[in-house]
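User: Run a structure prediction on this.
Assistant: Running it now.
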Amino acid sequence: MGAVGWYCPLILRRRVNPAPATWIIACLAINLSMVAYHAIPGRSLMAKLISNASLYGAALEITIVLIVLVFVLWRANELRIAFDWVQKSCLAVMCLTLLYWYSHHDQARATFWTTQALMIVAYIATISKAIQCRTAFDSIGNWGLIFAACTVGLVAALLMRDLYGIANAARGSIMSVVTLLILVHFDRQAGYTRWRDEVITLRSFYGLK
């Protein structure tokens, strides 16, 4: 939940401009993946919570971020214009994937792997926007925290020898570090203005000196 405490204030203060498609697709996919993973037999609920903690934590975090982002865009009357063509394409892929899932939803394992593919599409929406804008438009701290959480989740899944937990955490680690490195690259070119702005905004939001 550290990422929520970092990211949501930046969204509320309009200091970042996230790709909405990323969070729409991710919210749908991660919650569907969580339900599918929970339905896979062979482990107790506690074992699943421990071995794939990153999945459950991400589901809660992404849902909160999406609610905050939609609220901010709706309040500013910017919800309709917030999607570029890549994001719209990603949403179209999401719809096609959901059609596939609907015809195979009785297969928990198929659902899990399908939603993992959806999560990759969600990351592509943010990565492509960064490359198009050639700027660190999104939060470096948030993506750094997501990468850290996925890495911790990967260690737990490896210790539990949970294939599905390993797959989820590894996907999150790889995609989040790619996103992070791209944002850091563009922020370095701009003299690290994004990072400094994040720190200043959060200090102001929380009343810190």
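Residues 163-189 form the longest helix (27 residues).
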